[in-house]
Design a protein that fits this description.
With 205 residues, the chain is α+β, with helices and mostly antiparallel strands. It folds into two domains: 153 residues, Beta Polymerase, domain 2 (2-Layer Sandwich), CATH 3.30.460; 46 residues. Helix content is 51%, strand content 22%. The protein is built from seven helices and five strands, in the order ααβααβαβββαα. Strands 1-2-5-4-3 form a five-stranded mixed β-sheet. α2 packs across α5. The chain is flat and about 60 Å long. Bound molecules: ligand 0O2.
Length: 205
Amino acid sequence: MEDKLKERIETPMVQLTYAYAMDVVQAKLRMINADLTEQFSRQVIRSMSARIKKTDSIAKKLVRKGREVTFEAAVDTLNDIAGIRVVCYFCDDIYQVADAVRAQKDLKVLKEKDYVKQPKKSGYQSVHLIVGVPVTYKGQTKEVRVEIQIRSFAMDYWAELDNQMCYKKSAGQIENVERKIKAYSDVIAKVDNQMLELRRRIEKM
Ligand code: 0O2
């Protein structure tokens, strides 16, 4: 089953279609960054990265979601085969970027999740937007979904370390690890807000 998924998901045409959709979204995000940077006279987006989900991660996610491990199930069910991560300097920048994405007429926001207002049980914070990008080839247009994860520099620090130590790993079962990683996420959120307050005081000067 997994071999068949690999055979189809790793064909150049499928990979290039997702890559094209990500290029379109990344180009848009660069324009959004330039616009916001000019508007606020400071850099808003610190970094951006893009990836196509690896076949083994796709297979594992389908199993996690109780789906068949097939190409069709992957394309139909998973919103993050193509993913872009946007890391902002401050936590309010996340919403500036999300609003700007929503305002783009050529990107359709299909789904949103706000794990900043409502962090996950693990402590994970980010805003996720699933956008549909029209991709036309030989007169045929299809909508390709791209997940945009938007988070602050501090949230990204937590998520990266959590990814290395706990997420999808059994470390969370070790006594106190789950509780501590959640507590550190709360500390990070507090510092993030304090930095924002400080920036606002400086801006008022
Ligand atoms: P990877 O390896 O990062 O790609 P949907 O299908 O849109 O309804 P989905 O994808 O099932 O939603 O779930 P969710 O929670 O909205 O988003 C999942 C992604 O968020 C994960 O992708 C991670 O990138 C990130 N994430 C969610 N929870 C955590 C967490 O506790 N810690 C960390 N570090 N990241 C988290 P994948 O595919 O699971 O992993």
